[in-house]
Design goal:
The chain has 2 helices and 37 strands. A hairpin with a 6-residue loop joins strand 7 (143-150) and strand 8. It is mainly β. It starts with a helix and ends in a 12-residue tail after the last strand. Strands 9, 11, 12, 13 and 15 form a 5-stranded antiparallel beta sheet that branches.
Length: 502
């Protein structure tokens, strides 16, 4: 192999290790042949962004960081979370690790070892957005959960979100500018240069005109909460928000606050696809509303199905959904689960048209209602993890929409003590199961749950945290997509010289 090809491999390997997202495939090679000649190695650097948790003076927020123990990971490294507007002495807030000259700041969370959760907390309306960076042994599969309790006021309840990796595009079906809603899209920039962002809003009749939603500047190492009803004068009960980054990259999340039914974070939907899964509708949900959007120029016709514990059923009266191109469609599914856990599955009735979708879920009745969201979620893939679980307040839902599957669920050590334990489960095809997830022996504090498929078809999962606050069934739901903790790296013997011609 010539020196140029060796240099290309080294550069590609370095890029993959840093970003955690790169996959290198020779031009003209099939996916199977590429997989056969490539190894999966742990990423060496990961960035996560946590939005400003609340503007309430009585908000209490916990951040829980966790990295699973990964074979082949570096023996050294570090991970920490700190205010987006501050920079650590070694430049942890910087995209390239260089010092910016800013004053050193104390991290909110700084884990000490993989396999054991680490927690930190903030309180009040001044708690900032956080920028996180993990390197070495802390990078592969790193996850951070932000959980906030607000006892009263608009958006009261339990609000939770997985801190997200920076990206350049996000879709949020399920937002609103209705009178009882106060929705913010939070944009956080982890890098040394300002980012420029456009926000498009789509209602039931199409694009909402706005003169202030384009060219929004998010300064370096800063966060901007954008109130959606300042972008349009047209109140809409159901909106799809599209965040596009012109330059740079950001983390994005929507905080949806309802005057009557509490609030929660609306995470981005999985990328547009012709088939979507929204896993983990609580068995005691009293109201479920489906919001969908077709980004292209073609209408989408979707089959609506519920994967229940006993099999797949079609909701009476809501067998299909027609989504007009460029317009947000919504339908009330009522108490679609009828006392059983479930996951909503959307598939095309005819031609394949990519869509995005999310569910707005309500528990409780009358004045004692609480809201959470379930966006369409990517499959678990090789491994997925969610942190901040408690012995009695966590519910893990897993669905296999097609072929059945066998999964391994691992409960980590506790944040203040306890021993990790694993258990395997079989998920029948076309069903959703609330699995009896293991709890660490001798648990003290909170713990992480890691899901790994063992055999069978793809699985989708979510975790619900729940607590009763003065009679209100407060809850929040997070999906478990693949943690992208490994990257495909070509074998050293593979000749990549063909790439030099591209």
């Amino acid at each position: 192999m010539n020196r140029t090809t060796l240099s290309l491999i080294a550069a590609a390997t370095a890029l993959a290790a840093v970003t955690g997202f790169a996959t290198l495939t020779p031009a003209g090679a099939s996916g199977d042949s590429a997989s056969a000649s490539a190894a999966r190695l742990p990423v060496e650097r990961t960035s996560l962004l946590c939005p400003q948790p609340s503007t309430s003076d009585i908000a209490d927020t916990t951040y829980t960081s966790f990295t699973p123990v990964v074979e082949g990971a570096s023996g050294s490294g570090k991970a920490q979370l700190q205010a987006a507007t501050e920079e650590s002495a070694d430049g942890a807030g910087s995209s390239d690790g260089k010092k910016s000259g800013a004053k050193a700041a104390k991290p909110v969370v700084q884990p000490k070892e993989p396999g054991k959760p680490a927690a930190g907390d903030t309180s009040g309306a001044d708690a900032p957005a956080l920028v996180g960076l993990a390197s070495g042994k802390f990078a592969p599969g790193w996850t951070v959960q932000e959980t906030t309790e607000v006892a009263a006021g608009a958006g009261r309840g339990l609000l939770g979100t997985n801190c997200t990796a920076p990206d350049t595009e996000f879709w949020f079906p399920g937002a609103s500018t209705a009178a009882q809603r106060t929705d913010y899209v939070h944009l956080t920039n982890p890098d040394d240069a300002a980012a420029v962002v456009d926000i498009d809003l789509y209602g039931k009749d199409g694009t909402l005109k706005s003169t202030v939603a384009d060219g929004i500047t998010v300064q370096a190492h800063a966060s901007e909460p954008i109130l959606l009803n300042t972008l349009t004068g047209d109140p809409q009960a159901d909106l799809t928000v599209h965040v596009k980054v012109r330059s740079g990259r950001v983390g994005a999340a929507v905080q949806a606050l309802d005057a009557k039914t509490g609030g929660d974070w609306l995470a981005a939907s999985a990328d547009p696809a012709d088939s979507l899964v929204m896993p983990g509708i609580p068995k005691d949900a009293t109201s479920v509303r489906l919001v969908a959007f077709a980004p292209g120029d073609t209408d989408a016709d979707l089959k609506v199905r519920l994967a229940s514990p006993s099999g797949t059923i079609t909701p009476a009266g809501n067998e299909t959904l027609h989504v007009k191109a460029g317009m947000t469609s919504a339908v009330d599914l009522g108490d679609v689960t009828r006392g059983e856990a479930g996951s909503l599955v959307l598939t095309p009735t005819g031609s394949s048209v990519p869509v995005v979708a999310a569910l707005r879920v309500v528990r409780g009745k009358g004045a004692d209602q609480e809201t959470a969201f379930i966006p369409a979620t990517a499959p678990v893939g090789a491994r997925a993890t969610v942190a901040d679980n408690t012995a009695k307040g966590s519910t893990l839902a897993v669905t296999a929409p097609g072929e059945g599957a066998r999964i391994k669920v691992t409960a980590s050590a506790g944040s203040r003590g306890g021993t990790a334990v694993s258990k395997t489960f079989t998920i029948k095809g076309g069903t959703t199961q609330n699995v009896q997830a293991p709890v660490p022996s001798g648990l003290k504090g909170t713990y992480a749950l890691t899901v790994e498929p063992v055999s069978g078809g793809p699985v989708y999962a979510s975790r619900m945290l729940s607590a009763t606050q003065e009679g209100v069934p407060a809850f929040t739901i997070q999906g478990l997509p693949d943690d992208r903790g490994t990257v495909s790296v070509p074998d050293a013997e593979q000749d990549l010289s063909v790439l030099l011609k591209q």
